[in-house]
Write a structure and sequence with these properties.
Length: 266
Amino acid sequence: MVASLWKNILLVRKKSPLVHNITNFVVMNNTANALLAVGASPIMAHAHAEIDEMTSLCASLVINIGTLDEYWVEAMCKAAKKANQASKPFILDPVGAGATHFRDSTLSKLVDLKPTVIRANASEILALAKFNKTKTKGVDSTAHSSEAIEAAKVLNETFGAVICISGETDIVVSGERQIQVKNGSPLMTKVTGLGCSATAIIGAFIAVIEDKTEAVLAATALMAIAGEIAAKEAKGPGSLQVLLLDKLYNITEAEFTQHCNIERVS
Ligand SMILES: Nc1ncnc2c1ncn2[C@@H]1O[C@H](COP(=O)(O)OP(=O)(O)O)[C@@H](O)[C@H]1O
Ligand SMILES: Cc1ncsc1CCOP(=O)(O)O
Ligand SMILES: [Mg+2]
C-alpha cells in the first residue's frame, strides 16, 4: 500500500494539476504555498464574473467556508454546480460547522451539491451530520476523530462523499472501507490552516488519481507524515510552518515509507 501511495505523490508532482480554491482569508497564503510545495498549481478566485470559466479551466475545486459571507456563498454554490456539470471533483472543508446558523445553512446547500470529498476535524464532522449535542468551539476540534466515525459513515451514505476526519489519527471513511493514518504531531494544531492545507492537497490528488479513496489517503498521509518529520526539528509553531512547507516539497520515498503508519480497519 505504501508503494502505491508514493506513486501517487510522484504523479501529482508530474502532472501538476491546477486547483481552484474558494477559501478563507486566514489561510489563502498557507494553502497556496502547500499546493505549490506538493507540486500542484493553486489559484484562488471567488468573483462571480469568472467562476464558470475558472471552474472549467481547473482540474478540481476546493470550497472552504472559513470566512464566508453572502457574496462568497453564492460564488461557492455557483462553482460547485459548474464542477458537477463539468464532472470535476469538488472538495468541501466545512470550517466551523455547528458554530453558527449561517455556517450550517450554507453547508446544507453545499452538501446537497454532492462534494466528492469532505475533510474536517471531528467536531465539524459531528456537526455536519447533526450528531453534536453541544455547540462547537469554533474552528478547532473538541472531539477525537474516533468519536466521529459513525457521523462520517452517515455523511458518506447520505451524500456519497469520501470522508476524511482529521486529528491525532486521521480516519478515511469510504463505503465499507475505513483506513486510519496514525501520523502527524500535536504541534500541528498550533499552526492555523493546516487542516485547510490538508483539504487543498486532497484537491490536488483527487484531480489526478482515479481511485478517490486512494487519492484522499495519499494526500492525508503526505500531510501527516511531512508534519510529523517537520515537528521533530521545529522549535515551535513558527518554525513548524516553514519546515512543513520544505518537507512537503522535499520528502523522499525512504522518509515517507519509514514513517508511514497506516492501518486498514475494514
Ligand atoms: N493531536 C494530533 N496529533 C498528530 N497530528 C495531528 C493532531 N491533530 C491534528 N493533527 C494533524 O494536523 C493536520 C490538521 O488536522 P486538524 O488540526 O484536525 O484540522 P483542522 O485544522 O481543520 O482542525 C492533519 O494532518 C492531522 O493529521
Ligand atoms: C482561524 C480561522 N478562522 C476562520 S477560518 C480559520 C482558519 C482555520 O484553519 P484550520 O481549520 O485549517 O486550522
Ligand atoms: Mg479546519
